[in-house]
Write a structure and sequence with these properties.
The structure holds 2 protein chains of 2 kinds. Chain A is mostly helical. Chain A has helices at residues 13-28, 39-56, 65-85, 88-106, 114-123. Chain B has helices spanning 20-30, 55-68, 94-102, 150-166, 170-181, 187-195, 204-228, 240-244, 246-267, 270-293, 301-326, 331-355, 367-370, 376-383, 388-396, 401-413, 416-434, 444-454; strands at residues 2-9, 15-18, 32-41, 46-51, 106-112, 115-116, 123-128, 134-145, 233-234, 237-238. The chains are: A mainly alpha, B alpha+beta.
Chain lengths: 124, 459
Amino acid sequence: MVQVPERELVRLEGLWSDGLSDAYRAYQEDVSQFEAGAQPKLALAAALIEIGIRLQGLGGRAAPPTVLLMGDLCLARGSRLLADNGPLQVQVAFAEAIQAMSSAAAAEQSVPSTRQLLRRALTR
Amino acid sequence: MIGARLRFGTRHATEFVDLTDRLREEIRDSGLRTGRVYLQSLHTTLGLAVNENEPLLLRDFQALLERIAPAGAGYHHDDFARRVDVPVDEPENGHAHCRQLLLTSSSTLLVEDGDLVLGRWQSVFAVELDGPRQREVAVQLDGDFVRPSREASEALVELELARQLLVDPESVAAPMRRLVEAGGKRLRPKLVQLTAGIGPVNEPLRAAALAAAVELLHNATLIHDDYVDESTHRRGRPTVAAAEGPERAIAVGDYYFAKATRMIAEIGNRDVTSAIAEALEAVCASQIDDVALRGAYPGDRESYLKVVRGKTASLFAAACASGALLSGATPEAVGALRRYGELLGTAFQMVDDMVDFSPSSGKPVGLDIRQRVLSLPLIYAADDREVGPEVRALLAGALGDREVGRVAELVTSSDALGRVRNEANELVEEAVRELEAIELDGLRPILVGLARSAVDRNA
């Protein structure tokens, strides 16, 4: 069941049907160990970061500027949801996952799977 | 109050570990001038003592402990058959627990003139009674701390930035290092450090870590902005996007966005983490608005202010609030400093817009016009009765060198720059008034000076 507060999707409504809802549902499986109120927010945080990275084109061809900005907003909102609802170790694990992907991209190496890294971060 | 842990390993069953020098170092690093050091052993077979560090005397103490509570003397604690939940690696150490009873597990020491108050022959010992082991002693330092000078604080941030960049992969660190080393005003870290001195908790190292993280975050946003704005130079050097391509720029921006958020999270203050995260979201949302408004260039004052509050002022506000939160300042002080930061950030952006029309700034005149970046002088000039029609007509068409030059000329000839200057000054005075109602522990003149100099590009 989708429990995402509407305000967390402001400006990103179009993304919901473009992969965000699927990603959100996938991460719902990984958040059961957290307090009930935090679960949808953490699943959404992970989904936003995954979609944000996809939009930016990290590790591939750079997104056009306007799409990059949308990706940046996804990352920032995911990060804020984590800051407000996630335990410290999850916040750190998410940041490490993004660092791993972006440093690989900067070194022109293959970028690890976002979903795999974020799922691991949620269950660490 | 500053907390720390002294960690050390012991090599013998009984051992006197002299902690005096390490404690002196902690006191020196903390800046504690007058106050107290609280020590607490975190183990039941590790005691504390203040006594003379003379090797033969230490053997006497050891012999005394052994006489009073000899090992293997039939302690109930060592009869594992009668105990419940005994770990598999539990040693027979009844004697060690009994010996610890003769010592103390916590101790308070005085500090004067930035040093431990100890008699000529006194040393501070952790006494191992069941070694060898890894041990930990908790330390808290409380009292009056000397505030590091502004120069020392700023040097701490530079060191922290250099240290963080040193440990990163070169593919991301090199472009960020070029940007960081090219300068910049470091206003956001300065605001963090100043406001971190306002409350009762004075932790210069954590404040420096937060300040460095905020600067890295700001630079990460600039790297993406430069790609979006197609800027070729920043701080006199090629932008990451121009020098290394947009793909690298996106990766470097993401890396330092993540690194900075991690550094901030690791500071361990949820309110600080939330304040910065909220600001970052505002920055990103406003950047989208900024680009969207370029279709209706030059826009209006209201839209301009909305964008600037998000894009620039929100991080200024968060820098002020987060420093104050870190220092344990009152909610009233945090609120006032947040408003101070927001007003200052808005004023700062207005003055930054004026630089686009100044031939002596070092930046090419009219760069913002060419890139259709929101600019208050341009908005005012477009509204001007005399030059407005021509400005609007020029902006509606293609902007080549000739058109950009003419727009800059028209803006300069109108009263737009003067209006923006006055408005920025008014905002700064409003920011200064926010400081009047709160206790600032002597920092008011510095914050006032910083606000006024931030909008004075000749300073």
